[in-house]
Amino acid sequence: MHRFPHLRQDAAASLVVFLVAVPLCLGVAVASGAPAELGLITGIVGGLVTGLLPGSSLQVSGPAAGLTVLVYQAVDSYGLPALGVIVLAAGLLQLAMGALRLGRWFRAMSLSVIEGMLAGIGLVLIAGQLYAAAGLEAPAGGVDKLLGLPGAAADALAGRETLASLAVAAGTVLVMVLWRRLPGPAGAVPGALAAVLLATAVTAAFAVPVATVEVRGLFDSVQPPGTDTLGVLTDVGVLGTIVAFALIASAESLFSAAAVDRLHTGPRTRYNRELMAQGAGNTVCGLLGALPMTAVIVRSSANVQAGARTKASRVLHGVWLLLFAALLPSVLALIPLPALAGILIHAGWKLIPFRGLVTLWRGQRGEALVLVVTAVSIVAVNMFEGVLIGLALSVVKTAWESSKVKLEVTDKGAGPVQVHLSGNATFLRLPKILDTLESLPQDRPVELDLTALHHLDHACSTALSHWAERHSGTDTPPVRLTTR
Fold first, then answer.
1. CATH of the domain at 443
2. Is the pTM of this model over 0.85?
3. Looking at the structure, do residues 391 and 464 belong to the same domain, yes or no?
4. Residue-range definition of the domain harbouring residue 89
5. SS3 letters for the chain?
6. How confident is the model at residue 3 (pLDDT cuts 50, 70, 90)?
7. Which band of pLDDT confidence, cut at 50, 70 and 90, is reported for residue 4?
8. Domain SLC26A/SulP transporter, which positions (predicted)?
């Protein structure tokens, strides 16, 4: 006990995290188009591999709802056997980024882009799982999912089995929403676990006609990538997916680390080491043919709130997942799929920052626009391109805001016209600058003072020189430029 002074607190916390993780691991795997056991394998690796490595002491890793849409697209496009290769390559890329000490740069990513990414994922996740809740096949694209919902609702209301499936999903969401309000020990039980247990008990007791989880067995689900699957690495789309996996998983993990650090007073996250720990975990997941992992804020916050003190809690949670998957696989076959869909609908809803968007709109509409455009782009196009669009818009917004320039024109009616420029003169403000300069009287000398400019980019400098040459006619003295 002297060697593990906090073992009692960590063991208790690990059980709580385990109970939170089980339904989420299963739900994310099924929603990703993969066997349910692969979600458990990723959770086990997150505990036993990433959990042992340095970086963040209380952050818990596993399959995350935030990558569900991207994983589903990858499995749908390239097949399940290729998933291991993609995750393996993404893990190696994360290891390289950590070794190059790039982890801290993820802290500079725009919060609006991250929240927009999560909101877009949440929208697509909810739309897709609404079909799963009714036992229907979901369309492939995000827009098609949303546009097809009215027709899917009509189909669901017309059938007895689809109505039963919807009822189970709706009941699961309702239990999760209301469970935390229960007083006493019952409220301490994770809502997702309680909802799945209740849904399983009700469907079994009343023989409700709903689909349940297909069980393949833990070891049968492990599919290490073979040499024949390495050929997918020549596909440009696969390479883009690898980069998307690595960047999005890293951003989500390190963003989660910053949030978790605010929840406790223990050691702070070492970002480069945490990035390498995530990379090591994803490398192992890839070798096992499992789902990609990230640090998960739901499990991490549950770990902190349950009283965890050291990394032993997250390692033990991986042990409990391993024992559960190895010793009780038949239990999985009893879990109704609509219940897992309900869990992910609830998770998707929590990914959408409704309150944050309202606050941003009131105070910083530019940031709110970045958030909305990122989310809409992910729904309309795909995850990777949607995030790139959000990042590009964020850069443009920042450049526009930082390139504020002030023009002061002083014309005393006689003598030269004095023009004073201050601030940052970039190509984004060039139309405004040239409009003002070209409106000056052509027959008057001009004194252009640039000494108060903090920055003058090449485009502006060239444009000002050309304007000065044009303005200086045969009867007009040359423009007098004053620079620092």
1. 3.30.750.24
2. no
3. no
4. 7-395
5. CCCCCCHHHHHHHHHHHHHHHHHHHHHHHHHCCCCHHHHHHHHHHHHHCHHHCCCCCCCCEECCHHHHHHHHHHHHHHCHHHHHHHHHHHHHHHHHHHHCCCHHHHHHCCHHHHHHHHHHHHHHHHHHHHHHHCCCCCCCCHHHHHHCHHHHHHHHHCCHHHHHHHHHHHHHHHHHHHHCCCCHHHHHCCHHHHHHHHHHHHHHHCCCCCCECCCCCHHHHCCCCCHHHHHHHHCHHHHHHHHHHHHHHHHHHHHHHHHHHCCCCCCCCCHHHHHHHHHHHHHHHHHHCCCCCEECHHHHHHHHHCCCCCCHHHHHHHHHHHHHHHHCHHHHCCCEHHHHHHHHHHHHHHHCCHHHHHHHHHHCHHHHHHHHHHHHHHHHCCHHHHHHHHHHHHHHHHHHHHCCEEEEEECCCCCCEEEEEEEEECHHHHHHHHHHHHCCCCCCCEEEEEEEEEEECHHHHHHHHHHHHHHCCCCCCCCEEECC
6. low
7. low
8. 7-374
